[in-house]
């Protein structure tokens, strides 16, 4: 998805540059790149696998956050957690089939994210304040 935004941004801004509208082309390019970054995994901490996250969380009790690129609710949670987001274990369900299966098991068959697991507690699209408390 992020790559598509970059490609469209390059094409549209390129056509603006060729038409002599360099400022508009630059604006379009910056806008498309910004949206592409926000929708890409780059906006999130380094993802891990569901198996590794489960193993590590069993040791230190940190939350596991299941997410996917392009999810506005995941992005909102990530933004609200700020720097604390790095201390959770993030599992991208689009790149980890076991993570997607874990979410389906929790949600009754859907891949609704963000889904957060802390110990035996599981919450779908939780209040960011609750997640911050779990990270404290």
TrEMBL record:
Give the matching InterPro entries.
Glutaredoxin, Thioredoxin-like_sf
- A Pfam family (short name) is Glutaredoxin
Instruction: Give every Glutaredoxin domain span.
Output: 65-121
PROSITE patterns recorded: GLUTAREDOXIN_2
Taking the record's annotation, the residue ranges forming a coiled coil are: none
Residues spanning the membrane: 24-44
Keyword set for this entry? Membrane, Transmembrane, Transmembrane helix
UniProt name for this protein: Glutaredoxin domain-containing protein
- Organism of origin is Kribbella lupini
